[in-house]
């Protein structure tokens, strides 16, 4: 308040009247300060504006989000748990995904080694909000999977239900770390940090993303509260029909012997799926439509 009264008093003095450039300087200074304050406020309301200050961050986020927003695939494969003593337990894995106007839908079916099946329908919108429906072994109808079960092991593997989608790229809080090499690949290193609005068990997800193809080759997820980490390694990166994908994804949980591997054996990168293809009332995921030649 004292500062404001002083400005008013000085602006009315005869000396300032003799020097109009001083009055203009004061006005300009006030305008600049107000503009800076407005910009800070605007960036808080619209965090995407901060990306403009780091074009590499904008490149990584835009590329990663567009990759997911263009998904339209069917695939078949195997999900295998490798125990520390070398024992293997494998499951048949069939999935399909498509990005619609309201976000991504992923429907997958996991079966074996017995006859029981686990069927999941995951929906992720453009802000990264995820909902999961499931038909679990022994159940006849689908139901919403409560959040407290999102981190449960998927059929006993190191993959959880939440790991089936890459929601971290759509979180609000993103930071680009110093670039690094992962193996022979030059990578952007993106740290995605969850907020209270994000339904997730992870505090942060750090992704090593190949600079040339903007596809992750290594991901480390850090759990909330415990700080425990889960590592994902992507193998056999390839481009089919203009779409990059990995042929294998390995998951390792810190402090747990062994690992789990998802192997892609066949599929179509341009499946032309519609909403009817994601009806949980269907019998299975219609794996017979997958074209293994693609």
Report strand %. Answer: 35-45%
How many strands appear in the DSSP assignment? 13
What average pLDDT do the residues reach?
A: 84
Number of helices: 4
Determine Rg (CA atoms, Å).
26 Å
Distance between the termini: 72 Å
Overall shape: it is globular
Major sheet details: 13 strands, antiparallel
Write down the secondary-structure element order. HHHHEEEEEEEEEEEEE
Stretches where pLDDT falls below 50 for ≥5 residues?
1-22, 34-50, 286-294
| Major β-sheet strand ordering | 6-5-4-3-2-1-13-12-11-10-9-8-7
Helix content: 10-25%
Q: State the secondary-structure class.
A: alpha+beta
Structure summary:
With 294 residues, the chain is α+β, with helices and mostly antiparallel strands. Helices cover 19% and strands 40% of the residues.
Defining key terms:
294 residues, alpha+beta, 13-stranded antiparallel beta sheet, 19% helix, disordered N terminus, disordered C terminus
Could you characterize the architecture of this molecule?
By secondary structure, the chain is α+β, with helices and mostly antiparallel strands. It is built from four helices and 13 strands. Strands 6-5-4-3-2-1-13-12-11-10-9-8-7 form a 13-stranded antiparallel β-sheet, with helices on one face. Strand 1 and strand 2 form a beta hairpin.
């Amino acid at each position: 308040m004292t500062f404001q009264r002083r400005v008013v008093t000085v602006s009315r003095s005869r000396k300032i009247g003799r020097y109009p450039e001083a009055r203009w300087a004061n006005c300009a200074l006030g305008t600049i300060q107000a503009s800076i304050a407005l910009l800070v406020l605007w960036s808080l309301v619209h965090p995407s504006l901060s990306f403009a200050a780091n074009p590499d961050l904008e490149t990584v986020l835009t590329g990663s989000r567009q990759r997911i927003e263009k998904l339209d695939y069917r695939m078949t494969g195997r999900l295998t748990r490798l125990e520390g003593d070398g024992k293997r337990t494998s499951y048949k894995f069939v999935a399909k995904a498509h990005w619609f106007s309201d976000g991504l839908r992923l429907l997958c079916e996991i079966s074996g080694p017995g006859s029981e099946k686990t069927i999941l329908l995951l929906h992720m919108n453009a802000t990264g909000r995820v909902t999961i429906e499931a038909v679990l072994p022994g159940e006849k109808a689908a139901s919403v999977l409560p959040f407290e079960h999102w981190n449960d092991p998927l059929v006993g593997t190191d993959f959880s239900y939440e790991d089936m989608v890459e929601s971290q790229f759509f979180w609000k809080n993103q930071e680009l770390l110093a670039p690094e090499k992962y193996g022979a690949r030059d990578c952007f290193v993106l740290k995605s940090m969850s907020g209270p609005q994000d339904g997730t068990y992870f505090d942060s997800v750090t992704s090593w993303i190949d600079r040339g193809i903007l596809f992750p080759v290594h991901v480390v997820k850090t759990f909330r509260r415990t700080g425990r980490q889960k590592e994902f390694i992507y193998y056999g990166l390839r481009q089919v029909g203009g779409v990059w994908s990995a042929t294998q994804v390995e998951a390792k949980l810190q402090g747990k012997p062994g690992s789990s591997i998802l192997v892609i054996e066949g599929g179509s990168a341009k499946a032309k799926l519609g909403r009817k293809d994601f009806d949980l009332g269907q019998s299975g995921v219609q794996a017979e439509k997958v074209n293994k030649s693609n």
